[in-house]
């Protein structure tokens, strides 16, 4: 027997390629005759194009052509209106692409795009979200197929009768994904076969969409995403860059690369929609919840309905007999929101865990113990038993590691000169998602193995973990296993999203390799030259309805220092403890947890965007104005986990870890700021101007 590979802190296989620059990304394929294209974004917030003057641009050196709604290839209905590009004169929001300049180099394309003159018939616009907006409505569903409204018992009556009550509103601004590699695609037609290199979290979906839009069979399309420089949800579905690249390549007959400038991303590839929360909690004097009401209002575009499912986590977290969770949405003249790391759970848990902290203060109770006191036996919303739930263990282990015991609960109790020091805690949850996928495992004559599945490694270490899974199933060292991922020509697999990747892909990889090992055991003679191959498909099992409520859980602890002179908040320590099933690679898992926690810190302190009411545009559209955390912002960050054996998930017992790290982290920081200052700020981010204003208003 070979030593087990699963669970070991194996180094990432793609590390050398990335640090030496040999990993090739979507815009880095120098095909012969390649052209570059740059979109022209609309400069009005609503209206229609009345004319496009391309004369100056067309005469510029290097410009090959300019596509507009008047001459662009006609496309079949994509089923996603955000991808119906250059098909008509309508402008649903500022930043909508109204032309595409194709040139022999990126500089020429940029210069040509600047020379295109577009005239518009402007219409009145509205980009301002409010809970009382007259256009607000309750949709049939929120994202993920969740019912928009769920109610149990008599939440209003129970809240009115509660001995201790909290009624608070919280605001989370628009947030942007901003992956390190902006969205890019390179398209090349070879006769009637289309090959696309694209920065995507799932190429199987991209292939199906392109085939439909361009009138092809799926076998005529190859979509490759071998290396992807992050996505955080924004690359989970096809985006404008891939459609524009294919369109321009078909029109010109040459390969075309479209690489979106970072400043275009907020309007073109989705964003986390702003959410307005009202939470009411009612409890008895012992801290047992009697009533929970979580109401969320968010915005969507007029192009496509997208409803952030931010009230859903409140249906999972605490034992409460009377509850109501409601989603409302307002259609505005804004870019279409989309997926962003831990959609729903991230903003929803910020509001819920902040409100629970406020309840602990009202009760005079330790916030860790308040959460433990309201621990449910079964999932409150559905009544299903949890497949596993070790939140209490996470809270207690986190408190032990953080040194929570002996904490002075009084606000403003610790001071270091002008600095006020505080600590905070928040819980976290994220659903377990497993999607059908396929894989092939091949034994080769030289004693090595080739495992293929169309997984996408977006920087999480998928290649490495899948090799570990395969090695254990085959009972060979990982060095004998080669992994191929990132191409629609490989066995179909689900996208890298919803923390579902490893659980979804690992299942068929484990199954194919286990079957191959059995076949080799009784195989007479040497492996033939073409090898021996075994396929696996989890359709009908991975997507089967489960009698269990399946979730990951965690607990976050934060220590902050608040400067009373400047208003600056510095996080001194972040600590997270998670219950996420079997940890398949300790090194990559810790990296994912830490990355999520850091992203949550950015959400709490610096990340946020503003829609300018007059111009209908995001005012923070690049990394100079949209501030993400850097190494100096996190002096001390720790991620740990509790051992969890859950047999109700998949053969490997793993839960997703890519998103549980961000959920709860912003609330822990916000709760620590309250503990430090005695002032409760309910709108993110907690920037110095807001902190100073709150301190000044409180007279402290």
Keywords summarizing the entry:
globular, seven-stranded mixed sheet, 24% helix, alpha+beta, 24% strand, 15 helices, 700 residues, five-stranded mixed sheet
Structure overview:
The radius of gyration is 26 Å and the shape is globular. The model has no long low-confidence stretch (mean pLDDT 97). Helix 8 (345-363) runs parallel beside helix 14 (665-677). The chain has a seven-stranded mixed beta sheet, with helices on both faces. Strands 9-17-16-15-10 form a five-stranded mixed beta sheet, with helices on both faces. The longest helix has 21 residues, at 501-521. The protein is built from 15 helices and 26 strands. By secondary structure, the protein is of the alpha+beta class. Strand 21 (449-452), helix 11 and strand 22 (481-484) form a beta-alpha-beta unit. It starts with 14 loop residues before the first helix and ends with a helix. The chain is 24% helix and 24% strand.
Quaternary organization = single chain
Strand tally is 26
Beta-strand content estimate: 15-25%
**Coarse morphology:** globular
Please give the largest β-sheet.
7 strands, mixed
- What strand order characterises the main sheet? 3-5-1-14-11-12-13
Low-confidence stretches: none
Task: Indicate the mean pLDDT.
Answer: 97
- By secondary-structure content and strand pairing, the structural class works out as alpha+beta
Separate helix tally: 15
Please compute the radius of gyration using only Cα atoms: 26 Å
Helix content: 10-25%
Q: Could you give the distance between the termini?
A: 66 Å
